[in-house]
Amino acid sequence: MVARVSRPQSFFLIVTPEHRAFGAPPVAWWLDDYLGWLRHPYYLALQSAAGAYGSEPQAIQVAQVMTDKPRREIGVGRLRIRFFVKRGIERTPTRPLSGAFAPLRVSTPEATVFDLIRYAPRIGGIGSAIETLTPLLPLVRVGEFDRVLRAEDEPAIAQRLGYIFEKAGEARLAEVIRRWLPSRLALVPLASSRTNPTTSHEAPNWRVLDNSGEFGT
């Protein structure tokens, strides 16, 4: 059995008997070849990357993949791939997925944590992002996280993460962000897609307006 991945150009997969129920082999087996064939950089990202490191608070039915240009979600049999776009994707630290059947790039734990907050409105909101990143925190290395801050250069995302780290008791990571941030900060909402002035409160150390209700008052 053969499955077609994309049109009008054709990228085909051989579907062996054990994968016929899904209509295709696992995405991790052919994603690297597929994006290489398209000549686009990529990495397994967000909740899919977190799942690769063992953080799976929610069952994600769609593989989340970062690349450099907009692409439509694709489906092959019962499998789905959703693409996210990042400018300067080549600056994001990645690594080969350990123990993978085929070559596969995945964002490092440090880059995954940053991406989860940056793309929170598109993956279920800030609550879902926090739930996913919390189990990753023991894997986050101070030096590598500092590298991510410098590569991404997004103070508003860093402010949100600083507040989250502080609430999670991760003083070492919060201090990395504090040292990197400029002395003057703009006020940013924790949940960029939601406002609720009646329950919001400001964390002055980070100039973050917690309008999410995730951490109470």
Protein described:
It is a single chain. The protein has a single domain (2-210), classed as Beta Polymerase, domain 2. The model has no long low-confidence stretch (mean pLDDT 90). It is elongated, with a radius of gyration of 19 Å. With 217 residues, the protein is an alpha+beta fold. The N and C termini lie far apart (57 Å). A four-stranded mixed sheet has the order 3-4-6-5. Helix content is 33%, strand content 18%. The relative contact order is 0.11. The chain is built from seven helices and eleven strands. The chain has helices at residues 27-38, 46-52, 109-118, 126-133, 142-152, 155-167, 171-180, and strands at residues 2-4, 12-14, 42-44, 63-67, 74-76, 79-85, 94-96, 105-107, 188-189, 201-203, 208-210. The longest helix is centred in the C-terminal third of the chain and has 13 residues, at 155-167.
Outline, from the CA principal axes? elongated
Radius of gyration, in Å, reads 19 Å
User: How big a fraction of the residues is strand?
Assistant: 15-25%
Strand order of the largest sheet: 3-4-6-5
Structural class: alpha+beta
Query: Which sequence of SSEs, written as H and E, runs from N to C?
Result: EEHEHEEEEEHHHHHEEE
Number of helices: 7
